[in-house]
From TrEMBL:
It comes from Porites lobata. The keyword Zinc-finger applies. It holds the Pfam family DDE_Tnp_4. Transmembrane segments: none annotated. PANTHER family: THAP DOMAIN PROTEIN. Residues 1-84 form the THAP-type domain. Keywords: Coiled coil, DNA-binding, Metal-binding, Zinc, Zinc-finger. Residues 66-86, 108-127 are annotated as: Disordered. Residues 108-124 have a biased composition (Polar residues). The keyword Nucleotide-binding does not apply. This is THAP-type domain-containing protein. Its cofactor is a divalent metal cation. Residues 195-222 form a coiled coil.
Amino acid sequence: MVHSCCVINCTARWSGDKGFFRLPSENDKERRKKWLRNIRRADPEDPRKPWIPCNTDRVCKNHFVTGAPSTEDPRHPDYTPNLNMGYTSTEKLEDKLKKIKRLERFQNRQSLNTGSNSVPSSTAEPMDVESPFEEVSCQQVSLNQFPFASFTVDKNFSCITCEHVQEEAYASPLDSGDGRDELLKRQAIYFNQKCVQLIKEKKEVEEELQKASFTVMNLSKKQLKFYTGVRSWSIFHWIVRIVSGGYQFPTVCKKLKPDDKVLMILMKLRLGLQNKDLAYRFGATEDQVNKIIKKGVKVMAKALRFLIVWPDKEATIRNMPKVFKRSISYQKTRVIIDCSEIFIKRPTNLLARNITYSNYKHHNTMKFLVGITPCGAVSFLSKWWGGHVSDKELTLNSGFLDHLEYGEQVMADRGFLIKEELICRGASLVIPAFTKGKNQLKGTEVISSGKLLISGSMWNALLAA
């Protein structure tokens, strides 16, 4: 009876030679199942059902690497037919040949060491003694295979040493003639080089991640000024020392350093970024950012409160800029005032919503009065008020007038109608000329307003910063 190969697209026919092999019997269910899985045939009558071979079905030698099936070791490539099976295979013929060679070398080593029980055999893929660096991976061999070789790593991760291998008196329970010592030395060298390489790669990846992260260390001086308004690194680090020194700074998100938390708060105050944006930048959660800003702002306000000092008159005159000294009209200027507003969320309470709504900003805001000296130092800061309050009412009720002395000048904008209140205290108000009810300003008014704008440029520059 003439038999043909049962593999798909195989035209080989049996003519009495020994190149055809039966499928494993039903007694060897596991191997038979693997053969049928590699053959991938379906029932000709019903393709949805698996193919059931009969006793006359054969597989030719063209589907085995060595030309015949191997029944000894399940790791052998020819344990099942896997060559020219009628479909594309991911494993190349060269890889299968290498596996066969490695298996033969492994079997030879086992035959030499059958009398020794010091090192148990592993179920992993055998290691090539001649070329361990090309054919072995770290996952293929366990360190438990080598009980008399202990590995240590130094603190700087610069070198990994294998004790008992580098020592001349290498204590091996096996004879040196069986080749086992040489095998262990090769394996130790391989693990040493592999571990050092992996540690270097880990360091490189960590350095790249550190450079890519948004932290204070990765900012330039120009970027620091843009994000925080601080002009130098020395001032920024001084702020961090003051804030985190004697005060309980937020401890949430321990992976963020105090420098990064201060940077986060300053970015929030200066740029008004959303908390979700800050969370993405600093690698934190939105809830952590909320807690840091909520508590951090209070801590910074308390820690840096000593910087707001009302200087005495002699110190103000001594540090008066030249643009004020040259003008007779502004030589007595003690302070420059203006109101600033910060946007807030719309309150749910109707009364609070009415009090905080600013007609100027067309938004719910919190309003406060700020005063600076002619040299640009902040000398006065009022409490928070609702954005609906006028500049005059805020100035009169903030306690600002209590700091003024007789003969001093206050420089302000047109909205501060406090001239009469200042006269009662012996002080004077300097504001730009009004244009209401006039076709045009007088020449003297134009000159004085221009000088006033030049003198007040410091205040505008401070707000812009």
